[in-house]
Structures are given as structure tokens and as C-alpha cells.
Specification:
The complex is a heterodimer of chains A (123) and B (182). Chain A contains five helices and no strands. Chain A is mainly α and 123 residues long. Chain A is elongated, with a radius of gyration of 46 Å. Chain A starts with a helix and ends with a helix. The radius of gyration of chain B is 17 Å and the shape is globular. With 182 residues, chain B is mainly alpha-helical. The chains are: A mainly alpha (123), B mainly alpha (182). The interface between A and B is large, with 32 and 42 residues.
Chain lengths: 123, 182
Amino acid sequence: MKPESDAWQALNRHAAAQLRGGFADRVLRAAHGPQPAAWRQLQTAGAAQLRPGFAERVIRAARAAADMPSLGSQFALSAATAALCVLAVVYFHQRNVAAADERNLAEWRQVVTVAEDFDAGLL
Amino acid sequence: MEPTSPTALTDLVRRAQKGDEVAQRELIVSYQHRVAGFVYAMTGRSDYVEDLAQQVFIKMVRAIDRLQAPAQFESWLFRLARNTCIDQLRRQKLRRIFLPFGEEHENIPEPPGAVDSEELDALRHALEQLRPQDRALLALVQEGRSHAEIAETLGTSVAAVKARLHRAREHLREHYQPEHET
């Protein structure tokens, strides 16, 4: 019996040696979840990331952003420019087509005149 | 630091709404630490804090004239902060999908113990395991937002907020292991 109880004790000792110091505290902390102090530390750590002069930088950036044209107005300007370009292309295309028609018609009239003269001459 | 009474806060917000830069600055100084803490809780990244907090306050300055109830300034501000952080986390996720090998430094989590105490490390680690929406919920509660305010922020019912909060707390507890025993 002695060796067996020794073995059990040795097993217990070995198992207990696996637990690091502060085991009970850690168990309690894990069971209760983060305490308000941990949340406060989180907030303090976050706040510590802001460099001095943060508010001034924000105001400056907000002012610069306000001076910039809004996305909507940029889009409207782009749309208006595109519409003007399309109108210009259509206008010049129509004018070229009309001029070409005029030219062709004049040439045909000339051909007709020549043909009529030729017919008259022949007759 | 913060306006001492609700009336003082309302006055300050009204002045800020009229474009008074002194009042806007005072609001930023009053809330910058709380917003920074909220951003840190949401992202777990100290290098994002200043940039995201700045985005939150720029949105505040640009949109404050549209805030109809100055008394609800705080819950409005934290709604801006929540949305800004969630947008950032979504963008980060998309970037990871489309640029899996690009800007790898963005995806490196802060090493435990780099800047924090054991509890803070454990809390950051536990928060990282939660969905951003749950992190926001817990952080809003820590900020003192009531269930009704949170329900309004999230566009849901108070009962749903309570249920989600309960689940989020359970998950946080599951992952909260000081000294990273997992």
C-alpha cells in the first residue's frame, strides 16, 4: 500500500507543479470576466495614443475638408462637362454631315446640268 | 473636462452647430479620450486610434448642424464612432481578400504585453475574438449608453439589445484568459 499512496502523492505533486502562481486569482478573473478596471485601462491606453494638439488637427482637417468641393458637386461638374462634350461632338458631326450633303448635292446638280447640256447638244 | 451639466453640454452643442470653432474644439477636447478608448476597444490597434478618432471628429464637425436633438449629442457621437470603426474593419477585411499579400503589416496584431498590463492584454485578446458588432455593443455599454440608446443606435428593440449583450458578455468571458492561458 505504501508505494501506491506514494505514487498518488507524487502524481498530485506533479499535477500541482503544473499550476503557475496566482492560479486561483486567474480562475476567478476568468470566471467573472473583465472587471471595470480592465475597461478603464483599455480606455486610458486608447486615449494615450492621441498626440498633443489633437483637437487643433481635427479642426484644421475639418476646415480643409469643408473648403474642398463636395463629392456631389464634383460629380455634377463632371456630368456637365461630359454632357457639353457630347453636345459639341453631336453638333460638329451634324454640321459636317450637312456640309457634305450640300457639297454632294451641288456636285450632283453640276452633273445633271452637264448631262442636260450633253443631251441638248446631242439632240 | 466634460461639460458639467446636461444644460452646459446642450449649450455647447448649439454653439458648435452655429459654426463656433471654440465650441467645436471644446467638444473635441471633452470627448477625445472617450472616443479614443472606444476606437481602441473596437479595433484593438493602437496605430489606428488617432486616425480613426480624427475621422470621427471630422464627421462630427461636418454633420453637427444636422443633429436635431442637441441633448442626444453623446449617443450620436458614439454612433458615429461605432459606424466609423465598423467601416474601417470592413475595409480592412475587403483589403485582405483582394490584396492577400499586400500591406501585410496591416494585419499584424499587436503583440501581447507590448504596451499593456496582463488584464488589458487579456481584454484586448478577448475582444479580438468577438464580432465587431458585439465589441461595439460592449464598448457602448462601458461608455454608459443605456439599452434604449443602444437599441436606437442599432435600429433594434431593447429586448434584442439585452439578448445580444448577454451573448456578447458570455463570449467575452469565454475568451477572457489573463496571461493567455489558451
